[in-house]
Specification:
Largest sheet: 5 strands, mixed
Helix content: 25-40%
Number of helices: 8
Structural class: alpha/beta
Number of domains: 2
Strand content: 15-25%
Strand order of the largest sheet: 2-1-5-3-4
Number of strands: 12
Shape: elongated
Length: about 260
């Protein structure tokens, strides 16, 4: 049988068995196999790959491999601009919208906290996630390799972290979103954009102590939830500050305090 030689770089090695990490290795080549087929057969989701070179030439996922080909597979480049080279996916999505799978509810909530449109439903099957991501132009977030290998998912991130805050930092760093944070601009419950509201308009929905202590409020037009600068907001503010420090994001105002309203 024909054979082809692979070499995977940087974090893509995390998907490989130890014997194949950071070294060249040869594998049998089925007749008519494409680059995408072989990369995913070896365990690497196509959404994690940024650039593929076959015999030194940049190629797309549909390239049919031939006996003796040498394939180098690279993840997202952080310090090197590879824009002039052939990319593997369509152009980047116009807006940053996410779709988190059933196991990433905590991450979905934190992404909404820092202002990103993030869909989440614990009851969506893989096929539904695939259809929704394509229909709404969403980046799929998952810890399931098989989900990210589905043909219809063109933009996705394999989430490596175990805890939501760690996962949030990974996504922001991976997609270079540090300057796109807009904390406290989306509803944590239903994902709708928040807007300022007069105290009198929401007075009936507030505890008496809150009405007496606060003057500024924002409300969700979707689920009706009301937010104010209480103790829960203080805890969320600490989360935002920690993220900004971790990813090198600029402060939103002169005194470095992220303000929701």
């Amino acid at each position: 049988m024909d054979r082809v030689t692979f070499r995977f770089y940087e974090e893509l090695n995390d998907f490989l068995p130890p014997a194949r990490r950071k070294v060249e290795f040869s594998v049998p080549l089925p007749r008519g196999a494409t680059v995408k087929h072989m990369v995913e057969t070896l365990g690497v989701p196509h959404t994690e790959v940024e650039l593929i070179l076959v015999n030194g030439e940049s190629v797309g996922f549909g390239r049919v491999l031939r006996d003796g080909d040498r394939v180098a597979v690279y993840p997202r480049f952080e310090a090197l601009d590879v824009t002039p080279l052939l990319r593997l996916r369509p152009a980047p999505l116009r807006a940053t919208r996410f779709l988190a799978d059933a196991h990433l509810g905590g991450l979905a909530r934190l992404l909404r906290l820092v202002g990103f449109d993030t869909a989440f439903c614990s009851r969506l099957a893989d096929a539904d996630i695939e259809r929704l991501a394509a229909a709404e132009g969403r980046i799929v977030l998952s810890r399931d390799r098989a989900l990210l290998q589905r043909r219809g998912i063109t933009h996705g991130v394999f989430v490596r972290g175990e805890r939501p805050r760690e996962q949030l930092r990974q996504v922001v760093e991976r997609l270079d979103l540090a300057r796109s944070l807009q904390p406290f601009s989306r509803c944590l419950k239903c994902n709708s954009p928040l807007g300022p509201v007069a105290p009198d308009a929401v007075a009936a929905r507030l505890p008496p102590a809150v009405r007496a202590a606060h003057e500024r409020f924002v409300a969700c037009p979707g689920c009706g939830r009301v937010y104010w600068e209480g103790s829960h907001w203080q805890r969320m503010q600490a989360t935002v500050r920690a993220l900004r420090a971790a990813v090198g994001a600029p402060a939103e105002n002169e005194d470095g305090e992220p303000r929701p309203f």
